[in-house]
Design goal:
homodimer; alpha/beta; Aminopeptidase; two-stranded antiparallel sheet; 6 helices; 11 strands
């Protein structure tokens, strides 16, 4: 009775959203940090309105990019409808970062000393259904005789702990770098953005959980994309970045697949 | 596609069993370590037949006691149908003991360096459904206007790391000791067994996870019972211990409820 029902109530709706379900390319776009929304029962976690709308709550612009890529690449899109402050779906339940007590400069009072029942409820309500949905899509695609591809979409803040970041687009990978290599090779040939490998984060920061969960065990082509969020603050920016990434991904997939 | 389906296949059946579902007392008996059975897909985890049938795989006798108590106390019983070697349902996913690499003197090769996908699959297949079922029963009982009570049943080995244990029955509790206190008080008045508080384990060993998950947040009366497994090697032993415990619990519940 201390269950997921305590986290999500009827008015919150489902934890996971699936879009462009009829996409036929085999690409599964994943957006773990699509939303800054908190479930009604969560209150404000003791955070200010500024913090609740900041990059600690979500990846601003990531869902907009993922939606354009979903259309451009004809791939399905799975995104989490609630903030990573409640559960960061790019972290396993055993990670302290799954329900962080601190994020960058912000303490998160509502995540301090979480009781086992609360950790369980969040895991059951947000993490398990999210990755079940990703997994189900990958299964379905493979079952239909196509090659599933995992592409996760993130954004990062231009200033972190007070330090500006020069990189504009990060192409991240874990132990399987095939798709990332092909994208980086094309990006190195020239283009409008500063593109770097495993930047501003890399697998050593624990950010490749979704890739490790879904792609690596099955040898699926995969990549994690990080876009600096000041580039996608308006539709024109989203459109430009998405068009660039769509070309990069589709070109790379032709060489890798 | 790396999902729970990879852990449990159709021939394995469900992870969780519910017995005496019409029990009306409000008591929910929980047996996390009821079974030594491994899912077919798990193989032998690299363990010998001896290890696979030993106390590291299950709590021998615990399910037999729990079934008698379920009948005697008219309570429902929830038990896990698979070995704790695959997932120890009395541990949260963030605990290294949930999928242990070592248990007492045994290394468990099949649990070494588990990939995130495997940890996820086990958590989703075994832990979440188990505690969902316990939670659903507690909810149902409360919804029917009765007071739910959580009683978890375990057994322990008479010799651990080569050292004999004198205690015969342990009455364990976490921060809410009401039911345990009442049982210990009655036990201290005399009886056939050596009964001790928080022995041979206690909350500091992380063994009260189920109590902390389900009972403490709601203030439900609760207790964890540990029986030395040499006492329940035959039906007569099970019968004697179960009859003793049924009296102890029902008497204590009258004073606590």
């Amino acid at each position: 009775m201390l269950l997921r029902s305590g986290i999500l109530t009827a008015s919150d709706g489902e934890a996971v959203a699936l879009e462009n379900a009829t996409g036929t390319s085999g690409v599964v776009l994943v957006c773990e940090h699509a939303s800054a929304v908190l479930p009604a029962a969560a209150g404000d976690l003791g955070l200010s309105a500024d913090a609740l709308s900041s990059h600690i709550a979500w990846d601003p612009g990531a869902l907009a990019i993922a939606r354009r890529l979903s259309t451009a690449l004809d791939g399905v899109l799975v995104h989490q409808r609630f903030s990573r402050l409640i559960y960061d779906c790019n972290r396993p339940p055993e990670s302290p970062a799954a329900m962080p007590e601190k994020s960058e400069i912000y303490e998160i009072p509502g995540n301090r000393d979480l009781a086992p029942a609360e950790r369980y409820a969040r895991t059951a309500a947000l993490y398990i259904p999210f990755h079940d949905r990703v997994s189900a899509e990958l299964s379905r695609i493979a079952g239909e005789g196509r090659k599933p591809v995992v592409v996760t979409i993130h954004t990062f803040t231009p200033v972190y702990f007070g330090k500006p970041r020069e990189v504009e687009i990060g192409i991240l990978h874990d132990t399987d770098s095939r798709l990332a290599d092909a994208m980086l090779e094309a990006a190195a040939a020239g283009g409008p953005y500063r593109v770097e490998r495993n930047s501003p984060y890399g697998p050593e920061d624990g950010v490749t959980h979704t890739l490790r969960l879904h792609a690596l065990p099955l040898g699926l082509a995969n990549v994690m994309i990080e876009v600096r969020n000041d580039l996608v603050r308006d539709d024109a920016g989203v459109e430009a970045v998405s068009a660039y990434l769509a070309d990069l991904i589709s070109g790379a997939l032709e060489r890798v697949a």
